[in-house]
Amino acid sequence: MLISLTVGKVDAGVAVLLTHDKRLIEFPSILLPPNISSGSIVDITVSRNFGSEQKSQDAFLALQDAIFTSFGESEPTAPVLRCKNATQTSVVLEWDPIELATADCISLSLFRNGQKAGNIPRPTNMHTTKISGLAVDTEYTFQLVLRTSAGTYNSEKLVVKTHKMTDLSGITVTPGVLPAQLRDSLTKAIERIGAKLADTVRIDTTHFVTVEGRGIAWEKALEMNIPVVRPEWVEGCERGGRIVGVRQYYLDADPKLRQVEQQQQPPQPQQQPPQPSPTRETPKSPSPTRQSGADGAVPIPPTPPAKDSAPEEEESSSEDEDDENKTSVQDEQKVRVEDREQQKVALRPGGPSPKDKEAEKEGSESSSRSGSRTPGQASFQNIEL
């Protein structure tokens, strides 16, 4: 297709071309023939290049296939969470290296019982973590959540239960500076209690046992806040059948504290058959009797039972105390019987004394002399009282 255009104006780099219907077309001046000026007429041939189009299309499709092969066939995988070690108050978790494929890692978070516990630092390099401060003999649920530029991926939920105080299988001991004989005895004691022995200080090391505070392993244990104790600590756990505190077994601890703790350990409880509680016999009071005299019978009130001032808790006291109580009760009863006899003697009616007889005679004579008479010539009779 041939087109004739008139050059209207030529500037630096751009020329203005005019069509027959007076339309303006800006055209690069570098593509025009040299020595072109205003008023010149140029012929431009326009045609479609099918070969170049096909080549460009093929190159574009090849690029799309390369992008899909590199970024579309593989994708990140969910992390696989495992429990490496568990103790009474801590749990060590581990997982496989994270596979991100061509995606970028945004964060790796750890969830405990459905709540976020924190982010894992340097998730592409770290594959373990330790959670401390847990409760004894308690179940916990852990899960990892991986966030990437290609999406979010969750691990399977992991249920871990912390150990009881009598379960020593979670203890991992790393030995330090120890004599050969002491190291051998330590190894045997660790095997007997069911603990584990590690040659190096690791994230799951629970105790560092040594007799001297020196060496690279000792420095690493201090850096990781691992308790540094003496070999007697393992013996204390074996002797007590449970995990014991480490404060008395530090390198700079007073040995007397360990002796006091050994003395204060309670003996193992033994089951004994139940014994019946001793019962106290209440002394029987003498039955009330009647003594009859010439004047009549005087009833003797019953002796009140002895008051038991001891509370119910003292019923199981020793036999010596019971004998003393019985003796005191009997003595008290004797005194009461003697008092009653004296009272009986005082209550018995006796004959009138001579003084009473004389008073009665004088009263009768005076009444006969000065007795008054009634209008019917009746007189009061003198009655001897």
Automatic annotation (TrEMBL):
<feature type="domain" description="BRCT">
    <location>
        <begin position="163"/>
        <end position="251"/>
    </location>
</feature>
<dbReference type="InterPro" id="IPR031673">
    <property type="entry name" value="Chs5_N"/>
</dbReference>
<dbReference type="Pfam" id="PF16892">
    <property type="entry name" value="CHS5_N"/>
</dbReference>
<dbReference type="InterPro" id="IPR036420">
    <property type="entry name" value="BRCT_dom_sf"/>
</dbReference>
<feature type="compositionally biased region" description="Basic and acidic residues">
    <location>
        <begin position="325"/>
        <end position="343"/>
    </location>
</feature>
<feature type="compositionally biased region" description="Acidic residues">
    <location>
        <begin position="311"/>
        <end position="324"/>
    </location>
</feature>
<dbReference type="Pfam" id="PF16893">
    <property type="entry name" value="fn3_2"/>
</dbReference>
<dbReference type="Pfam" id="PF12738">
    <property type="entry name" value="PTCB-BRCT"/>
</dbReference>
<dbReference type="GO" id="GO:0046983">
    <property type="term" value="F:protein dimerization activity"/>
</dbReference>
<feature type="domain" description="Fibronectin type-III">
    <location>
        <begin position="75"/>
        <end position="169"/>
    </location>
</feature>
<dbReference type="GO" id="GO:0005802">
    <property type="term" value="C:trans-Golgi network"/>
</dbReference>
<dbReference type="InterPro" id="IPR013783">
    <property type="entry name" value="Ig-like_fold"/>
</dbReference>
<feature type="compositionally biased region" description="Polar residues">
    <location>
        <begin position="374"/>
        <end position="385"/>
    </location>
</feature>
<protein>
    <submittedName>
        <fullName>BRCT</fullName>
    </submittedName>
</protein>
<dbReference type="InterPro" id="IPR003961">
    <property type="entry name" value="FN3_dom"/>
</dbReference>
<dbReference type="GO" id="GO:0000747">
    <property type="term" value="P:conjugation with cellular fusion"/>
</dbReference>
<dbReference type="InterPro" id="IPR001357">
    <property type="entry name" value="BRCT_dom"/>
</dbReference>
<dbReference type="GO" id="GO:0034044">
    <property type="term" value="C:exomer complex"/>
</dbReference>
<dbReference type="InterPro" id="IPR036116">
    <property type="entry name" value="FN3_sf"/>
</dbReference>
<dbReference type="GO" id="GO:0006893">
    <property type="term" value="P:Golgi to plasma membrane transport"/>
</dbReference>
<dbReference type="InterPro" id="IPR031669">
    <property type="entry name" value="Fn3_2"/>
</dbReference>
<feature type="region of interest" description="Disordered">
    <location>
        <begin position="260"/>
        <end position="385"/>
    </location>
</feature>
<feature type="compositionally biased region" description="Basic and acidic residues">
    <location>
        <begin position="354"/>
        <end position="364"/>
    </location>
</feature>
<dbReference type="InterPro" id="IPR052827">
    <property type="entry name" value="CHS_Export/Cell_Fusion_Reg"/>
</dbReference>
<feature type="compositionally biased region" description="Pro residues">
    <location>
        <begin position="266"/>
        <end position="277"/>
    </location>
</feature>
